Amino acid sequence: MRTSFAHFRWRLHGACLVPALALAGCASLPPPTAELSAAQQAVARADAADAQQYAVDDLERARTALSRAQAAMAVGKERDARALAALSEASADLASARSEQAQAEATLLQRRSEVAALRQRLGMEDPR
């Protein structure tokens, strides 16, 4: 009996598929050290932006996620570590933004108060 090309083709597919699946199983992402570092830097920026005073909950969420990411990394759960590091970085960035917003609003209120005091001293009417 003569082997047809179709029969040979299925064997060829099978022979190529096994190494491809083996390589796909071995392929993994590098450890999330860069993500952890970025999260640590974001938490440090939030601290520098006085988030402890203006965005306590967001900063605490960032710190908790960062410590959980570090713990996950320590036990080899790199996927969890990567996700938690991203959550930490996002929460820290949110804390920084909210802190900066609160400081800007406080500065605006102070400037408006100063303008009102100057208008009063000059005897000008408040335009509101």
From TrEMBL:
Tell me which domain of life the UniProt entry assigns to the organism this sequence originates from.
Bacteria
**Which residues belong to the signal peptide in this entry?**
1-24
Task: Give the matching InterPro entries.
Answer: DUF4398 (IPR025511)
Domain DUF4398: start-end pairs:
34-108
Q: Which Pfam families match?
A: DUF4398 (PF14346)
* Record's keyword terms, sorted: Signal
The family database entries (Gene3D superfamilies) matched by this protein are listed as:
1.20.1270.390
Annotated membrane-spanning segments are none
The name under which this protein is listed is: DUF4398 domain-containing protein
Query: To which species is this protein native?
Result: Luteimonas padinae
Q: What are the leading ranks of the lineage?
A: Bacteria, Pseudomonadati, Pseudomonadota, Gammaproteobacteria, Lysobacterales
